[in-house]
Amino acid sequence: MRVLLGLQTLALAILLSAGGSVTAQQFGNTGTETETVRPPDPARGERLFKECLKCHTIIPGEIKIGPSLAGVVGRQPGSVPGFGYSQDMINFGASGIVWNPDNLDRFLTKPRGVIAGTKMVFEGFRRTSDRDDVIAYLSTIRG
Ligand code: HEC
User: Which residues of the chain have pLDDT under 50?
Assistant: First the structure.
């Protein structure tokens, strides 16, 4: 152990004397994402989806605090009949886009970062793997 620590200190000293800067990232968690990429896991996504079930269901057309998320991948944003969307969500959908893994990823990172006036009060999933897994799960739910 002592030897190992010594080696680590030595490596650090060499790195520093070589003019390199040592960031926290090289030596541990900075609070930002440093994850290894792995294939999305829809089964894990289903478990994470519990967070979303507070406000959404996957029953087509059903409205809770938020609209049904059945078939959301491939759907125009703001288009569930009878749900009172924010004007910003309606405008977002009117631009002619559909929800896809890419824009869902950005929305679920920070909803207000994508749609400033959204009514969705959710702090977002910080971890890429959490977002990937939930989106993979949502992709399996048809409308
Ligand atoms: C606290 C309640 C709440 C939680 C928790 C929540 N949402 Fe929402 N969500 C909403 C509301 C309200 C809207 C409508 C937003 C608007 O009109 O601006 C919405 C809208 C959406 C939309 C757009 C739907 C459409 O028809 O265009 C998606 C996609 C979405 N949520 C996904 C999720 C996912 C995935 C989760 C879990 C990670 C989640 N939401 C968690 C309340 C919530």
Answer: 1-3, 5-7, 9-31
Give the integer Cα–Cα distance in Å for 128 and 126.
Answer: 7
How many angstroms separate the CA atoms of 116 and 113, rounded?
A: 6
User: Ligand 1 mean position to 33 CA, how many Å?
Assistant: 23
Closest CA to 77 of 55, 53, 103: 103
* First-residue to last-residue Cα distance in the chain: 57
| 88, 77 Cβ separation under 8 angstroms | no
- The residue whose C-alpha atom lies closest to atom 30 belonging to ligand 1 is 69
Query: 120: phi > 0 → left, psi -120 to 50 → alpha, else beta; which?
Result: beta
Sign of CA dihedral 77, 81, 86, 90: positive
Ligand 1 atom nearest the C-alpha of 125 is 38
Q: What is the pLDDT of residue 49?
A: 98
- Cβ of 72 closer than 6 Å to ligand 1, yes or no, is yes
Atom of ligand 1 nearest to the CA of 92: 27
Handedness of CA 83, 88, 89, 91 (dihedral sign): positive
